[in-house]
């Protein structure tokens, strides 16, 4: 317990946590870009005569997805272990006098870990859904091509089938663009969240000292909540309109 009782031990843990958080931030940005670009090569090469290039591309992306998933999970596990060590340190008898400050720092690192974990699982789920949809549409396209080449009698039915398939592809592309915009917005908001938390903590400290500033902050928070409701309503309406357009 001698190492745990020293302030150097706490600083070492904080340094490890910040390093892991920085690595996770970079990994998650790359992971998000990989997931949002999964279907792009296949869409961009629809006019090519060879079917092998898109398949190789998607196969490479699948391998990259699996590799990056393992790396991110390992980083999350390491960061969780560091947070656990920090929690043990705050419960040590020698750290009782500084417990409030230590717990504040620990909670901030826990919030960051929770945000990264949530973002990873959400991005991973989106990727798996996109891959499943791409596989399904690829199977449909293959069935259409087989049907078209094997029968010359049902040309009208084949034409209708192809038009329906094209409509599904256009709807799928529109949904992918919407998901890409949403994920890019989330990346930007995540990068600003840490800075905003620090600023808000300092502003709250000033607000507790000066009532006038506190009233101003309450008005700002009220307007921010109002703007959030307006933005949420706009996003909801746009999403509904996109879904109506996609399925009609």
UniProtKB/TrEMBL annotation:
It comes from the Eukaryota. GO terms for cellular component: cis-Golgi network; Golgi medial cisterna; Golgi membrane; SNARE complex. Keywords: ER-Golgi transport, Golgi apparatus, Membrane, Protein transport, Receptor, Transmembrane, Transmembrane helix, Transport. The chain crosses the membrane at residues 229-247. InterPro entries: Golgi_SNAP_su1 (IPR023601). Its main location: Golgi. GO terms for biological process: endoplasmic reticulum to Golgi vesicle-mediated transport; inter-Golgi cisterna vesicle-mediated transport; protein transport; vesicle fusion. It is found in: Golgi apparatus membrane. It is a single-pass type IV membrane protein. Residues 38-59 are annotated as: Disordered. Residues 50-59 have a biased composition (Polar residues). GO terms for molecular function: SNAP receptor activity. Belongs to the GOSR1 family. Component of several multiprotein Golgi SNARE complexes. Involved in transport from the ER to the Golgi apparatus as well as in intra-Golgi transport. It belongs to a super-family of proteins called t-SNAREs or soluble NSF (N-ethylmaleimide-sensitive factor) attachment protein receptor. May play a protective role against hydrogen peroxide induced cytotoxicity under glutathione depleted conditions in neuronal cells by regulating the intracellular ROS levels via inhibition of p38 MAPK (MAPK11, MAPK12, MAPK13 and MAPK14). Participates in docking and fusion stage of ER to cis-Golgi transport. This is Golgi SNAP receptor complex member 1. It comes from Solea senegalensis (Senegalese sole). The lineage of its organism: Eukaryota, Metazoa, Chordata, Craniata, Vertebrata.
């Amino acid at each position: 317990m001698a190492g745990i009782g020293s302030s150097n031990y706490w600083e070492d843990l904080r340094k490890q946590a910040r390093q892991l958080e920085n690595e996770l931030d970079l990994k998650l940005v790359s992971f998000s870009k990989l997931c949002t670009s999964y279907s792009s090569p296949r869409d961009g090469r629809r006019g090519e005569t060879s079917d092998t290039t898109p398949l190789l591309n998607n196969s490479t992306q699948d391998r990259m997805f699996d590799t990056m998933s393992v790396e991110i999970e390992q980083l999350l596990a390491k960061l969780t272990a560091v947070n656990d060590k920090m929690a043990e340190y705050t419960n040590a008898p020698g750290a009782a006098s500084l417990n409030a400050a230590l717990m504040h720092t620990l909670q901030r690192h826990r919030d960051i870990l929770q945000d990264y974990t949530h973002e990873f699982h959400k991005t991973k789920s989106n990727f798996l859904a996109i891959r499943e949809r791409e596989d399904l549409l690829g199977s449909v396209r293959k069935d259409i091509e087989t049907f078209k080449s094997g029968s010359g009698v049902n040309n009208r039915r084949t034409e209708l089938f192809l038009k329906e398939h094209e409509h599904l592809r256009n709807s799928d592309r529109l949904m992918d663009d919407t998901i890409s915009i949403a994920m890019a917005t989330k990346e930007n908001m995540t990068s600003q969240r840490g800075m905003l938390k620090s600023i808000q903590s300092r502003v709250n400290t000033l607000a507790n000292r000066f009532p006038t500033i506190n009233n101003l902050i309450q008005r700002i928070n009220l307007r921010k909540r109002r703007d959030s409701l307006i933005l949420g309503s706009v996003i909801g309406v746009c999403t509904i309109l996109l879904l109506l357009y996609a399925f009609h």
